[in-house]
Amino acid sequence: MKLSDEEIVKLMMFPQTIEKGLREMMNAYQSRLYWHIRRLIIDHDAVQDVLQDTFIKAYQNIHQFKSDSKLYTWLYRIATNEALQQLNKMNRMKKADEDAEHYMRNLVAENASKEAEEIQVVLQKAIGTLPEKQRLVFNMRYYDDLPYEDISKILDMSVGTLKTNYHYAKEKVEQYIKDNYSEEF
Amino acid sequence: MKIDIDHIKKQNIYPEPSNDFFAKMQENVIAKVKEMEMVKEGKSTPVISINFKWVAAAAVVLIAGITAFIGLDYEKQQPQMAQQSQIIDSVYEPEPVAKSMNNSGEAKVDPESKNKTALAEYYKPASVSNSKPTKDLNKTQNNIKDYSVESYKPEITVDKVLVAFTPDQIGDLERNSEQDIYLDLYN
Fold first, then answer.
1. B55, containing H or E segment
2. Is the pLDDT of residue B147 over 50?
3. Percent of chain A with pLDDT over 90
4. B8 vs B187: which has the higher pLDDT
5. How far apart (Å, rounded) are the C-alpha atoms in residues B112 and A86?
6. Which residues of A touch B10 (CB under 8 A)?
7. Strand, coil or helix: B92
8. Nearest Cβ partner of B1 from A27, A31, A178?
9. Which chain A residues touch B11 with a CB distance below 8 Å?
10. 3-state DSSP assignment of residue A15
11. If DSSP states are collapsed to H, E and C, what string results for A134-156?
12. What ipTM did this prediction achieve?
């Protein structure tokens, strides 16, 4: 039986039930957080590490969780911070003469499934060309369908700024597909 | 051609993780969390573990000290060799020749002069071989010498001498091995 966010948080507040609460929390949000992180980092092994670190951080800081906010926005925030840290590490490890866009495009091509549609792969490559903050906003709005109010709490940005970011991000992606999709075929 | 991504079907291009991926991930998280809790508990309770060790060590030292103290105190209460030798001497009190013959059950007609000489050599003063003669020891030797001239019989064996000793006296003899050598009891 799936527990509500309040029940999960309550379980995690007591030492006797904290492990049960942690397992319930992971069962409820591990898949969503996995894909959220995957669309940012792309590499599966790196995503696994970030996902584990996310839940460990959640466990360590559960007592700082405010009951008036939503559990999944709090988890998204932790996962986003951990993913951005990992992205910085990966950027430092990439070749010095390789620009970030080229690096991300290569990463998408290497990790994409062979059964994936070409337009979907080009779309992902387009998203990879966006700056980090725009990429975050675009993924959460386009793929996760999160309301701007929730994205605002996750990224600590105003709704207006978020809408502007998403608008520009969408235009860039569409232009990239237009320029590159016709060339693929 | 204008592209509108809202009209593109949303699909995931990356492979799904394996069936046991999330289960393993959960176990890794739980294991890591438990490890962190153990480290936290270890840091928070060092006093108890250290105290227990020190208490155990202190108890052992205390018991050893009490045992040693009792042992020393007991040793001090033991009679000196000189006193013990008096007991020995009391066994070998000079007896009339007739009595000793009766006790032994044998008519010994060995000339006592020979025995006296042998005994004089046998019971040499402490200065000859004993490197650390004590005053009591010298007194003992003199006493033995005095008595032995008159009461020594060749048939008195080491066993008889040892039978007369109490267990404590035998223990003292063992400790004072030099004296044993001097007395040459095991010749």
1. helix B46-77
2. no
3. 70
4. B8
5. 112
6. 142-143
7. coil
8. A178
9. 116-117, 120
10. coil
11. HHHHHHHHHCCCCCHHHHHHHHC
12. 0.88
Six-digit token string for B51? 């105290």
CB A52 within 8 A of CB B29: yes
pLDDT tens string B48-65: 555 778 888 888 999 999
| Residue of A142, A131, A184 whose CA lies nearest to B4 | A142
- pTM for this entry: 0.60
Pairwise CA distance, residues A152 & A146, whole Å: 10
> Is A113 in contact with B13 (Cβ distance < 8 A)?
yes
CB contact (8 A) between residue A59 and residue B29: yes
Binary contact (B11, A31; C-beta < 8 A): no
Both structure tokens of A37: 């992180």
Residue identified by tokens 């223990």 is: B171
Task: Provide the residue count of chain A.
Answer: 185
Q: How many CA atoms lie within 13 A of B72 on its CB side?
A: 6
CA separation for the pair B21, B76 (Å, rounded): 78
Task: Return the structure tokens found at A173.
Answer: 């992606």
Give A94→chain B minimum CA distance, Å. 21
Residue of chain B with shortest Cα separation from A49? B25
